[in-house]
Amino acid sequence: MLKWMRSGSPWIWLTAGTVSLSLLAVLGLLLMIGWKGLSYFWPAQVYRFDVSLADHQQVIVGEIYETKQVPRQQLLEAGYELAGNDNTTIARYLIKTGNRELADLDFVTLLDTQIRSKEVAHGVAVIDRLRNGKFYGYPQAVMVNGSSHSAALLPDWLSQAEAAKEAILELQQNQYIPLNRQLASLAASSDKTSESRRGELLARLREVEHELGQVRQVLDGQSLLMKDAEGREVQIPLADILDVWYPNDMSFSEKVAHWGRQLGHFVTDAPREANTEGGVFPAIFGTVLMVLLMSVIVTPLGVLAAIYLHEYAKQNRFTRLIRVAVINLAGVPSIVYGVFGLGFFVYMVGGTIDELFFSDQLPAPTFGTPGILWSALTLAILTLPVVIVSTEEGLARIPPAIRHGSLALGATQAETLWRIVIPMASPAIMTGLILAVARAAGEVAPLMLVGVVKMAPSLPIDAQFPYLHLDRKFMHLGYHIYDVGFQSPNVEAARPLVYATSLLLVTVIIGLNLTAIGIRNHLREKFRDLEQ
């Protein structure tokens, strides 16, 4: 036994077991996040409950969101009047009922003892809307300017409403907004040509507003008459309806198709209802763009610093002090970088840019306010030590004979670095970039100070010059998770979105890392023979 202990085998097995447990824990966490997040988009069955409460009878229609077994004694202590006093448990259901026009909350809690009957609610429709969340009820008729039409024609009316909404969006983006921007650009001019041009633009703007008014008038006269489980009627504007489905009457293939559509909407749509509904496309776009900008900034800075430290600087006490400082920078809390970015980049650099180039817009800041450029620079400083250390280690692994051979053939030191050393060290550079991307994509604390917001009115990239707007604020998946999970006004409704967004953030990080790993492996194979 002592000989076996001295051989080192126990430590090998201990290391292998620890690594295996870590991998299993990570895999289990990802599976849990994936299951809870992706199951949110599955069309769950809707039930009809006949409920007997203390002072009245009630009919409730909704989805069973959560079921828990609660000890009877705990319910008695909470004030519930229950027969018996033993150690048995009672099922408690959390039911999503929606219908915010008729109730204050999206959810109700029922005990099994309060439910007189429970059955699948056939024929019930689930309406996904722009406002007020989902509605559970029974379609009665389509109302068009006061006249009633059969609810069976609802898909056709929804198609017409969708076409009208697309026409409104096209008019706004392609004509209304550009005309307003042209008028704003002519506001400071007073010559006759500008006055004539302004008159033409105003006339065209009135025509576009008239077209928009006509289309909106048609939409405003269309609504869907719904009836809830207790017979109360509600009219829902067709312009607010995003989707209609009958979960209890769908086949398995229809449920799979619906699940795919809902998942697609989650990835491609903008958020709504204080981030508790809709999609996360602006957050995906902002996360990827910020990471790409950070990578473009941190890579040359880190590589140049590592080249200077390893190839040019003398190895003395001063350079050793610099290396210690670089290593220690990696341990500084990220919120400190956020404070530095706010003070230096936003207020000092951004304020100076505003005074020099945007003085006519002051006191309203252009670059002297948090934005995606300052966020990328802050995270570049945060991840710079990782790139420097990784690049310097890659430079140290290159045999000195390769440098000496290049210099002996007449190449200068700069040519040797550019044509031989840096290409051979590129796998190590990519390793540092992978680590930098993995950390930067998940950071939230510094971004809260230098650019990220709960809701961004527009993307940092659009069709208007200069196309890439580095001064704009942006949305981020990490901050979206924080906001939905801890700042949401409707925590229960937002909980599945936390899991779904977390899975999406992990997927984005893995995708970025796999891309960098693929490039690194290609470069490693390319220069393997030269290293040997």
**Within the CATH hierarchy, at the fold level, what is the topology of the largest domain?**
MetI-like fold
What is the number of beta strands? 13
What is the arithmetic mean of pLDDT?
86
Instruction: Provide a count of the helices.
Output: 15
> Quick one: overall form?
globular
Distance between the termini: 42 Å
CATH superfamily of the largest domain: MetI-like
- Estimate the helix proportion, in percent: 55-70%
CATH class of the largest domain equals Mainly Alpha
- Using only C-alpha atoms, the radius of gyration works out to 31 Å
InterPro entries: MetI-like, MetI-like_sf, Phosphate_PstA
Protein name: Phosphate transport system permease protein PstA
Subcellular location: Cell inner membrane; Cell membrane
Family: Belongs to the binding-protein-dependent transport system permease family. CysTW subfamily.
Overview in brief:
With 532 residues, this protein is of the alpha+beta class. The protein has helices at 2-6, 9-38, 72-77, 154-185, 192-220, 252-268, 281-312, 317-329, 334-357, 372-396, 400-408, 413-442, 447-450, 477-486, 491-531, and strands spanning 46-52, 57-71, 89-96, 107-111, 115-120, 125-129, 134-144, 147-150, 222-227, 233-237, 241-245, 271-272, 277-278. A hairpin with a 4-residue loop joins strand 1 (46-52) and strand 2.
Q: What's the helix and strand layout?
A:
Elements: H1 2-6, H2 9-38, E1 46-52, E2 57-71, H3 72-77, E3 89-96, E4 107-111, E5 115-120, E6 125-129, E7 134-144, E8 147-150, H4 154-185, H5 192-220, E9 222-227, E10 233-237, E11 241-245, H6 252-268, E12 271-272, E13 277-278, H7 281-312, H8 317-329, H9 334-357, H10 372-396, H11 400-408, H12 413-442, H13 447-450, H14 477-486, H15 491-531
Antiparallel strand pairs: 1-2, 1-5, 2-3, 3-4, 6-7, 6-11, 7-8, 7-9, 9-10, 12-13
Helix pairs in contact: 2-15, 4-5, 7-10, 7-12, 8-10, 9-10, 10-12, 11-12, 12-15, 14-15
